[in-house]
Design goal:
This protein is an alpha/beta fold and 196 residues long. It contains seven helices and seven strands. The protein starts with 5 loop residues before the first strand and ends with a helix. It binds flavin mononucleotide. Belongs to the NAD(P)H dehydrogenase (quinone) family.
Length: 196
């Protein structure tokens, strides 16, 4: 019997008509065509609470998990592939997604310390990252703005948690380009998720 791959998309963009949403739709459509079981966590639509507060700070250290966090962790546990889609805001990810990681990627779930060494617990899962920017590549790259975000997201977060980062794809200058250029980018999206 043909194996069905399970893919979780985590989308962090507030607007329905955004290019990020178009990427999300493209990933979903293409992977469903390839017979993946695709689930989407649309963080703004879910009204996800991204603020790690005092009352659930201890959950980071895995004493008791709030219900909304347990639910998100169950989605991640279910998935074989994670696809993260987000715009660049102030040279990083939107606070919504950062807060999702702060609250959901808890110690004991996403990683743990054994004999003083950290160990990623989301092994055997693949990750693909799509990140859009307003600034052009030739401004961002010489200023190390791309490499710094790759380091933080791919090395500092995903690889740290044991995920195998397949691609971190940047789409540059997206609000300044025309419809045709956007279509070319969306075709590239298909080629990238084909690896999954
Ligand atoms: C709060 C905010 C901060 C932003 N900061 C940056 C930035 O640091 N670098 C950049 O290239 N673009 C920045 N932008 C532009 C967005 O990255 C760009 O509009 C987005 O990637 C376009 O995709 P969308 O159509 O899906 O929103 C920022 C936009 C907002 C709203």
């Amino acid at each position: 019997m043909e194996e069905i791959m399970k893919t979780l998309i985590i989308l962090a963009h507030p607007c329905e008509d955004s290019f990020n949403r178009a990427i999300c739709d493209e990933v979903k459509q293409h992977l469903e065509y390839k017979k993946h079981d695709v689930k989407i966590r649309d963080l703004y639509k879910l009204k996800f609470d991204p603020v790690l507060k005092e009352d659930n700070y201890s959950s980071f250290y895995q004493t008791e998990l709030p219900k909304d966090i347990k639910e998100e962790q169950d989605y991640i546990t279910w998935a074989e592939n994670l696809v993260m889609i987000f715009p660049t805001w102030w040279n990083g990810m939107p606070a919504m997604l950062k807060g999702y990681i702060d609250r959901v990627f808890t110690n004991g779930f996403a990683f743990r310390f054994t004999k003083g060494e950290s160990e990623g617990l989301l092994k055997e899962k693949k990750a693909v990252v799509f990140q859009t920017t307003g600034q052009p590549e030739d401004i961002m790259k010489p200023n190390q703005l791309v490499s710094s975000m790759e380091t933080i997201v791919d090395v500092g977060i995903l690889d740290y948690c044991g995920l195998d980062v397949i691609t971190h794809k940047f789409f540059f200058s997206v609000q300044h380009i025309n419809k045709e250029a956007r279509e070319v980018m969306l075709k590239e999206v298909n080629g990238i998720v084909d690896i999954l």
